[in-house]
Specification:
Blueprint: E1 6-9, H1 14-25, E2 30-34, H2 41-51, E3 55-59, H3 68-73, E4 81-84, H4 92-97, H5 99-127, E5 130-135, H6 148-168, E6 173-179, E7 182-183, E8 198-199, H7 201-214, E9 218-220, H8 224-234, H9 237-240
Parallel strand pairs: 1-2, 1-4, 2-3, 4-5, 5-6, 6-9, 7-8
Helix pairs in contact: 1-2, 1-7, 5-6
Bound molecules: NADP nicotinamide-adenine-dinucleotide phosphate.
Residues 10, 12-15, 34-35, 60-63, 85-88, 108, 112, 135, 137, 180, 182-183, 185-188 line the site of NADP nicotinamide-adenine-dinucleotide phosphate.
C-alpha cells in the first residue's frame, strides 16, 4: 500500500534530515522544504534511491509568512504528517543589545513555524486527518539568563502547539510537541554537552516517528529530561534568580 507523504520544514536541519530518512525508511514519500532548497538535491536523491520513495524539494522561508499559503498550494500533495524542525539558537548576548537580532530569533522559533503549522492545521482539519509535529525545546519551560530570548520564543511555540492540539482534537488532527533536550547537531556544535543527556539526531527521528504512530502529545526524547525540567520549573524564583544554570 502506498503510504502518505511527509513534509519536513527546515529540512537542512540535522534532526529534520534524520526524520526524513526515518519516514522514508517506513515507506513515506518525502517533501523536503528549506531555504535554498536546490542545495539539498544530493540529500533528495539519496533519500529517493536509498529508500525507494518519491522525494521532492520545495523552497520555503519560515520568516516570509506571506508566501506560506502559496507554498502549501505548490506541494505535490497535501502531506499527512508535517514536521517543523525550524529553529535558530542565535546569540543571547547579541540579542541583549541588538533588538533586530533578537527579533529574528523570536520570529524564527515562534512566528514562522506557528504561521506555517497554522495554515497546515486548517487544511488538515478540512480533510479531517493529519499529524503536525512541532520541534520546540525544554528551554521554553523556564527562562534562564543564558538563553531566554531563544527560550521565550520556544515557550510561545510550545503554548501554540498545545492550543492547536486542544482545538483540533475533535477534528481528526493530532499535534505532537517535541522537547528534544540536548541533541548533537550543527546548532550545538562546539558546546560541551553531557553524553548521558545528549541524543543523536537519528534517535530523535525514531522517537518522532513513533510519537506520530502512538499519538503522543508531548515527547521528551530522553525521559530524564522530564524529571530535570520538573525540578527546574519548581525551584522557587527567589532561589532561581541567584542560580547560574
Ligand atoms: N540541537 C539541540 O540540542 C536542540 C535542542 C532542542 C531543540 N532543538 C530544536 O530542534 C530543531 C532542529 O534543530 P537542529 O538541532 O537540527 O539544528 P539546525 O541544524 O541548526 O536546524 C535548524 C534549521 O532551521 C532552519 N531555519 C531557520 N530559520 C529558517 C527560516 N526562516 N526558514 C526556513 N528554515 C529555517 C535552518 O535552515 P538553514 O539550514 O537554511 O539555516 C536549519 O536547517 C530546531 O527547532 C531547534 O530549535 C534543538
Amino acid at each position: 500500500m502506498t503510504k502518505s507523504p511527509v513534509l519536513i520544514l527546515g529540512a537542512r536541519s540535522d534532526i529534520g534530515m534524520a526524520a526524513a530518512h526515518r519516514f522514508a525508511a517506513l515507506g513515506h514519500p518525502i517533501q523536503l522544504a528549506a531555504r535554498h532548497a536546490e542545495t539539498l538535491e544530493p540529500d533528495r536523491a539519496d533519500i529517493a534511491l536509498r529508500h525507494n520513495v518519491p522525494a521532492t524539494l520545495h523552497e520555503f522561508d519560515a520568516l516570509a509568512t506571506d508566501t506560506h499559503d502559496g507554498f502549501v498550494d505548490g506541494l505535490p500533495a497535501l502531506p499527512e504528517i508535517a514536521v517543523s524542525a525550524i529553529g535558530l539558537m542565535g546569540d543571547q548576548e547579541t540579542s541583549e543589545h541588538d533588538t533586530a537580532a533578537a527579533s529574528v530569533v523570536m520570529r524564527s522559533n515562534y512566528e514562522g513555524p506557528a504561521s506555517i503549522l497554522a495554515l497546515l492545521a486548517n487544511r488538515f482539519a478540512e480533510r479531517g486527518s493529519g499529524t503536525l509535529v512541532g520541534i520546540s525545546s525544554v528551554a521554553g519551560e523556564r527562562g534562564r539568563a543564558t538563553n531566554y530570548v531563544y527560550g521565550s520564543a520556544k515557550a510561545g511555540f510550545t503554548a501554540f502547539l498545545s492550543g492547536l492540539r486542544n482545538r483540533l482534537a475533535a477534528q481528526g488532527v493530532h499535534v505532537v510537541t517535541v522537547l528534544p533536550g540536548f541533541v548533537a547537531t550543527r546548532m550545538t556544535e562546539g558546546m560541551d554537552l553531557p553524553a548521558k543527556l545528549t541524543a543523536q539526531p537519528e534517535e530523535v527521528a525514531i522517537a518522532i516517528a513513533r510519537a506520530t504512530e502512538r499519538k503522543t502529545n508531548t515527547l521528551y526524547v530522553r525521559p530524564v529530561w522530564w524529571l530535570i525540567m520538573a525540578i527546574i520549573r519548581n525551584i522557587p524564583e527567589a532561589l532561581f534568580k541567584k542560580m547560574k544554570i
